[in-house]
Specification:
The complex is a heterodimer of chains A (about 110) and B (about 120).
Chain A: E1 4-7, E2 10-13, E3 19-25, E4 33-38, E5 45-49, E6 53-54, E7 62-67, E8 70-75, E9 84-90, E10 96-97, E11 101-105
Parallel strand pairs in A: 2-11
Antiparallel strand pairs in A: 1-3, 3-8, 4-5, 4-9, 5-6, 7-8, 9-10, 9-11
Chain B: E1 3-7, E2 11-12, E3 18-25, E4 34-39, E5 45-51, E6 58-60, E7 68-73, E8 78-83, E9 92-98, E10 109-110, E11 114-118
Parallel strand pairs in B: 2-11
Antiparallel strand pairs in B: 1-3, 3-8, 4-5, 4-9, 5-6, 7-8, 9-10, 9-11
The chains are: A mainly beta (about 110), B mainly beta (about 120).
Chain lengths: ~110, ~120
């Protein structure tokens, strides 16, 4: 299995801040990384796929980058509605989700 | 409109069994690999099983291998998960998902989930 780790586990930031989440794979996953946003009581929603492609309807303040084993999700200007938990997912081999990063507003 | 709707979740005693179902609509079900993902209360997402279009290839997470069985009926546009020998740590919301992966331009869809509670 190719496992994913994420950091930080939680983050508190102010509206308008730039926020970055990191995800690391236990071995190279090529471009097969997606990022999901999950709000309480809701199913996860896709934000980014293929490392950096913005999913349809997702605001442009979200972006993804990375390669090989290191990947990043960035929110350029944090909005109140971005409070959620963010998960990375590799689909290079059998799917594996990272443990998640919980985002709160200060 | 693509929809996935799970059913079959219930309160069950340890050692018990359930059959979860997921009915798909709005897309050609037989063209897509389907997945089950679960989430224990207050915990993260855990992929547990995938089944390819013609059921030729099936994968399981180690945590459920030997206890859970995934299947599909393309004519009925349905995905199933037989869950046996249930344990307390199987308590979770079980999601049916069409994961987009690297090809998510074609979409990425999840059902609302069905809750399985394992308790005596």
């Amino acid at each position: 299995d190719i496992q994913m780790t994420q950091s930080p586990p939680s983050l508190s930031a102010s509206v308008g801040d730039r926020v970055t989440f990191s995800c690391r794979a236990s071995q190279s996953v090529s471009g097969h990384v997606s990022w999901y946003q999950q709000k309480p009581g809701r199913a996860p929603q896709l934000l980014i796929y293929a490392v950096s492609t913005l999913h349809s309807g997702v605001p442009s303040r979200f972006s993804g980058s990375g390669s090989g084993t290191e990947f990043t999700l960035t929110i350029t200007s944090l909005q109140p509605e971005d409070v959620a938990t963010y998960y990375c997912l590799q689909t290079y081999s059998t799917p594996f989700f990272g443990p998640g990063s919980k985002l709160e507003i200060k | 409109e693509v929809q996935l709707v799970e059913s079959g979740g219930d309160l069950v005693q340890p050692g018990g069994a359930l059959r979860l179902s997921c009915i798909a609509s709005g897309f050609n079900f037989s063209d897509f690999t389907m997945n089950w993902v679960r989430q224990a209360p207050g915990k993260g997402l855990e992929w547990i099983s995938s089944i390819t279009t013609s059921s030729l290839t099936i994968y399981y997470a180690d945590s459920v291998k030997g206890r859970f069985t995934v299947s599909r009926d393309n004519d009925k546009m349905s995905l199933y998960l037989q869950v046996n020998s249930l344990r307390g740590d199987d308590t979770a919301i079980y999601y049916c998902a069409r994961l987009g992966g690297i090809g998510a331009r074609r979409g990425d869809y999840w059902g609302p989930g069905t809750l399985v509670t394992v308790s005596s």
